[in-house]
Design goal:
With 465 residues, this protein is of the alpha+beta class. It contains 14 helices and 18 strands. The strands form 5 sheets. Strands 1-11-12-13-16-10-9-4 form an 8-stranded mixed beta sheet. The protein has a 3-stranded antiparallel beta sheet with strand order 5-7-6. It has a 3-stranded mixed beta sheet with strand order 8-14-15, with no helix packed on it. The protein binds one RNA strand of 90 nucleotides through helix 3, helix 4 and helix 5.
Length: 465
RNA sequence: GGUGGGGUGGCGGAGCGGUUGAACGCGCCGGUCUUGAAAACCGGUAUACGCCUCGGCGUAUCAUGGGUUCGAAUCCCAUCCCCACCGCCA
């Protein structure tokens, strides 16, 4: 959520921001509604003030008259009753006017909030303009000595690559058919060493972020209330991407949603709280199952483990003071953690500065990290895929956009309550990450060397096949 | 799933239709006293929004949302949450 007061002062900042992100939102309409809303509120409040004052005068008078009614002979009672009635009628006009104003305010408020929630965070000025991921800008790349993605796979390893699907089939690592039988398209079963690799790499990532980088590990609910989806900024825009559990249809007071990332629960933990400054920064990590409907992605990346409905992800979030410099430092630090992990695994990767159109509604800035996936990209004359970068990580910087929605604040040195800043980044998501693992570490005979960093988590096993 | 009891400020805990944003205690902050500290005493101590002559003023908030009433923390309804017991269960 953006700051309505700031929007009043700088409407163009938000109009430009929405335009840069390609989000259609009627900010002029919001300003109009806001003006109306405030006028009504002012009148309603002053009417209420008069009503309160009047009530305090009348109240005791009615009280005394009622007491009199009990003691006085019946001959006088009708006179007292009419006095009471007279007093009671006094605030009636006010009451009607207030009810009228209440109604008008109640009619405007949801309209106002709908627009307010839809206004995206303006991109930072240093974010390059663009309309889609095609306009993202490569910042830097890294690769191990033994695999340079600027050369072909054959040049790197001396043989033609198999895809992760072929490798998975060879070694019975994934059962796509039965996964689909059970749960439809984009479903899978990790089996045998596939399941072990998955657990091993998640555990490696979880240990790395918690023990080496001091993030507090948490297990969190992956089924949450709608307000948490709204609070973290995934709703309303991402409503179609979330699985919806309609508990209200079964008599419950509210529906639930499956989270598409551990970020939701990690951030929602402190919703509606006022933290003390010395609690900050909060560094949390979780490994959680993520659910994504992939609505609108029909036909895209349908084969293999790339785009699936359910996966597991180690996620990191930071909640820090409302300080841009600190926020930016954390962003760099969180990216550095991922780079260190990928270097441990010896995966070639690159950093991409996402352009304005690719940021999503809540981010001021986003850096994607992509790992080299030999099976992606165009197929050459020999029938070998050229390989391509595939997104494995995404590091977001949100200022107070998310904390404002979550009502997550802290008390600063002056004792004022201030919305925190928040950031999040993938640590590692599997099984997508098994794509580079299997494909990069395959040998000519189809066997797979297990990365050194992973071997301790695989009972010191060195190869598959 | 069933039955019963509850949700009041940072915490504990009163209030159960009329100057109650809320007694009292604890905690916290400031002050007096003290060489210093403690004790004692005095004062202060919520959040949000709106208005504004930047000193304030107003409104809302006693789980949440409705309702009754001239007036609701207090009465009614719905929902959420917590606790206890029973049932079911990894």
């Amino acid at each position: 959520m953006i700051d309505l007061k700031d929007l009043r002062d700088n409407p163009d900042k938000y109009k430009d921001g929405a335009r840069a992100k390609g989000v259609a939102v009627d900010i002029d309409r919001l300003l109009e509604l806001d003006t109306q809303h405030r006028a009504l509120l002012a009148e309603q409040e002053s009417q209420r003030a008069t009503q309160k004052k009047l009530s305090k005068e009348i109240g005791p008078q009615i009280g005394t008259l009622r007491k009199q009614l009990k003691t006085v002979p019946e001959t006088h009672s009708s006179e007292i009753e009419s006095q009471i009635r007279e007093l009671e009628e006094k605030p009636l006009q006010l009451k009607n006017r207030i009810a009228e104003l209440d109604e008008q305010i109640a009619a405007i408020k949801p309209k106002l909030e709908t627009i307010l929630l839809a206004i995206p965070q303006p991109p930072d000025p240093d974010v390059p303009p663009g309309t889609s991921e095609a306009d993202n800008v490569q910042l830097r790349t890294w690769h191990p000595n033994w695999f340079n993605p600027s050369k072909s796979f054959v040049d790197n390893k001396g043989f033609a690559p198999r895809t992760h699907m072929q490798l998975a089939e060879m070694h019975n690592l994934v059962d796509f058919e039965r996964g689909v039988k059970m749960s439809g398209s984009r479903s899978y079963i990790l089996t045998g060493d596939g399941a072990r690799l998955h657990q091993a790499i998640l555990r490696l990532a979880f240990d790395f972020i918690t023990t080496e980088h001091g993030f507090v590990g948490c297990t969190v609910p992956v089924i949450v209330r709608e307000e948490m989806m709204v609070g973290t900024g995934f709703f309303p825009a991402g409503h179609d991407q979330a699985y919806h559990i309609e508990e209200s249809k079964r008599g419950s007071g509210h529906d639930l949603f499956l989270t598409g990332t551990g970020e939701v629960s990690l951030m929602a933990m402190h919703a509606d709280e006022i933290l003390s400054a010395d609690q900050l920064p909060l560094q949390y990590a979780t490994v959680s199952t993520c659910f994504r409907r992939e609505a609108g992605a029909a036909g895209k990346d349908t084969a293999g483990l790339y785009r699936i409905h359910q996966f597991d992800k180690v996620e990191q979030v930071v909640i820090c003071k409302a300080d841009e410099t600190e926020s930016r430092q954390w962003h760099q630090k969180m990216i550095g953690i991922v780079e260190a992990l990928l270097q441990k695994l010896e995966f070639p990767y690159r950093l991409l500065q996402c352009c304005t159109g690719d940021l999503g509604p809540k981010n001021a800035d986003m850096i994607d990290i992509e790992s080299w996936m030999p099976s992606r990209g165009d197929v050459d004359a020999d029938g070998n895929p050229a390989g391509a970068w595939g997104e494995t990580h995404s590091a977001s910087r949100l200022y107070d956009y998310q904390c404002r929605r979550l009502n997550l604040r802290y008390r600063n040195d002056q004792g004022k309550t201030v919305f925190c800043h928040s950031l999040n980044n993938t640590v590692l998501a599997s099984p997508r990450v098994l794509i580079p693992l299997l494909e990069l570490y395959q040998n000519e005979d189809g066997s797979i060397t297990i990365p050194k960093a992973l071997q301790p988590y695989m009972n010191n096993q060195q190869r598959i096949g």
